[in-house]
Specification:
By secondary structure, this protein is of the alpha+beta class. It has a single domain, classed as Dimeric alpha+beta barrel (Alpha-Beta Plaits, 2-Layer Sandwich), CATH 3.30.70. Helix content is 22%, strand content 32%. The protein has a four-stranded antiparallel β-sheet. Strands 3-4 form a two-stranded antiparallel sheet. Strand 3 and strand 4 form a beta hairpin. The radius of gyration is 15 Å and the shape is globular. The two termini are 15 Å apart.
Length: 113
C-alpha cells in the first residue's frame, strides 16, 4: 500500500466557510474513507488569508499569503492509503469540494526509511 495526500484547493474565498450541511457532507466523505481503514491522517483545514500565512523564499524574502503566484489556494488536506494512485484519484473524485468549484490534487507521499 502507498500513501497519497489529497490537497484541496479553492479559488473563491466566499465558499471556503462551509454551511452546516456542507460540513456534514464533508464529514460523511471522510468517515467513508475511515470505515475502509484507508485514512492515514485526517489532515486539517487551513485559513486562506494573508494574515494567517506567509511565503518564505530564498534570500530571506517573506511575502504575505499562501497564494502570491497562483489563482487558487490550499484549504486543507488528508492523507490516505491506497494500492495505487488510480485508487486515490477515484477516492478524490467523490469529494464534495467539486460542488462548490474546488479541486483536489493527488500526490504520492515520499516515505523515508
Amino acid at each position: 500500500m502507498k500513501e497519497f495526500t489529497l490537497i484541496f484547493r479553492m479559488s473563491d474565498f466566499e465558499k471556503v466557510k462551509p454551511s452546516p450541511e456542507e460540513m456534514q457532507e464533508r464529514m460523511n466523505w471522510l468517515a467513508s474513507i475511515a470505515s475502509q481503514n484507508k485514512l492515514v491522517d485526517k489532515g486539517n483545514s487551513l485559513i486562506p488569508n494573508a494574515e494567517s500565512a506567509k511565503t518564505v523564499r530564498s534570500g530571506d524574502v517573506v511575502t504575505d499569503g499562501p497564494y502570491t503566484e497562483i489563482k487558487e489556494f490550499i484549504v486543507g488536506y488528508v492523507i490516505v492509503r491506497t494500492e495505487d494512485i488510480d485508487e486515490a484519484v477515484e477516492m478524490a473524485k467523490t469529494n464534495p469540494i467539486f460542488k462548490i468549484g474546488g479541486n483536489v490534487e493527488v500526490r504520492e507521499v515520499l516515505k523515508r526509511d
